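User: Let's play a game. I give you a shape written as tokens, and you guess the letters that built it. Ready? Here's round one.
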């Protein structure tokens, strides 16, 4: 049995409502403690993961039952809530919806062109309602709604970024040539992908619209449909090309939802921050500097700039270590949110003290 009452739902939704308005007075801190008694025997099939997302021998009902068991072993504190990410089919799964070949292992999912060396002028991406991956995710969503009603939030699957989806059909190297050699064709395909992206978002959202809240892989709660936008490809292009190939996609998609965030991934994307901040319908930035030396650097100027623009901040790695550092440079505590984080039962007391320190307990 999932340990989360209607009263807790009301409290968490109320906290987020205040936070989005800048009236909470503290950061959002969603903590789960793992290792509680699930109240029954763990199902035999594994939890949905990158490594088994292509195993269609596991039924949608079995997938949901295993997720239900997992959530039953959690205790929810602070601003956490029963949430499941649904990103295990890979970042940019819209490429698979459109016919790209999916390949996965225990660490990631890749998407490859269905045919090699397709001339860009012959590449046209079209909707296929019978696509096996689209049907699979819809089936899992339907089983989840059947099982939980509105008591669990199944997040939006990781549809992906427009140029990243396109790179799955042209390869990253191929797309780098095409933005220079055939910019008009790239723009055509970007527009096609944006429209298809919105169609996927709407269709999947229609299935889960009865949930109390909406979320995505970032675990941010919104009372209306939302998404963490991204474009990993923009790491390799400059601001001028970003305006030409990425900006309109982000602006159009974010205008069709509430509380959109942008996943700013790595120091190579910082050159695009001004352009992203200029999009009013993007409400926040998730900054991830990257592993190794970048993570150790002082990113106060980045946090200060985002906060000064009036947007929210989700800090990626190491936020618990750097909470005070971030709070010193942003306009107000309400600007900050932590991605859902977990500790085991042995660390529970320490974790709860952290929540209490920031007023989230």
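Assistant: Ready! My guess for every position:
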């Amino acid at each position: 049995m999932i340990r989360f009452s209607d009263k807790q739902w009301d409290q968490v939704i109320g906290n987020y409502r205040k936070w989005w308005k800048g009236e909470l007075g503290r950061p959002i801190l969603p903590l789960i403690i793992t290792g509680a008694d699930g109240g029954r025997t763990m199902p035999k099939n594994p939890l949905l993961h990158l490594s088994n997302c292509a195993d269609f021998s596991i039924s949608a009902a079995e997938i949901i039952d295993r997720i239900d068991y997992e959530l039953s072993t959690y205790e929810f504190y602070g601003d956490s809530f029963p949430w499941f990410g649904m990103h295990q089919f890979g970042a940019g799964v819209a490429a698979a919806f459109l016919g790209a070949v999916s390949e996965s292992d225990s660490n990631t999912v890749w998407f490859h062109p269905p045919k090699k060396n397709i001339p860009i002028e012959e590449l046209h991406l079209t909707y296929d309602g019978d696509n096996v991956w689209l049907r699979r995710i819809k089936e899992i969503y339907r089983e989840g709604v059947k099982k939980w009603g509105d008591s669990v939030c199944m997040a939006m699957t990781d549809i992906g970024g427009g140029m990243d989806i396109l790179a799955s059909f042209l390869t990253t190297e191929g797309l780098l040539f095409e933005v220079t050699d055939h910019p008009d064709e790239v723009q055509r395909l970007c527009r096609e992908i944006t429209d298809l992206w919105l169609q996927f978002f709407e269709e999947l959202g229609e299935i889960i619209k009865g949930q109390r809240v909406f979320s995505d892989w970032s675990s941010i709660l919104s009372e209306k449909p939302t998404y963490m936008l991204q474009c990993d490809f923009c790491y390799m292009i400059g601001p001028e090309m970003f305006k030409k190939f990425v900006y309109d996609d982000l602006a159009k998609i974010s205008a069709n939802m509430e509380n959109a965030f942008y996943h700013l991934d790595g120091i190579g994307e910082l050159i695009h921050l001004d352009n992203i901040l200029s999009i009013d319908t993007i409400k926040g930035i998730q900054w991830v500097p990257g592993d190794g030396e970048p993570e150790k650097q002082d990113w106060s100027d980045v946090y200060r700039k985002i906060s000064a623009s009036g947007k929210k901040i989700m800090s990626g790695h190491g936020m618990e270590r750097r909470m005070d550092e971030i709070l010193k440079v942003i306009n107000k505590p309400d600007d900050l949110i932590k991605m859902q984080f977990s500790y085991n039962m042995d660390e529970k007391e320490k974790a709860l003290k952290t929540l209490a320190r920031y007023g989230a307990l």
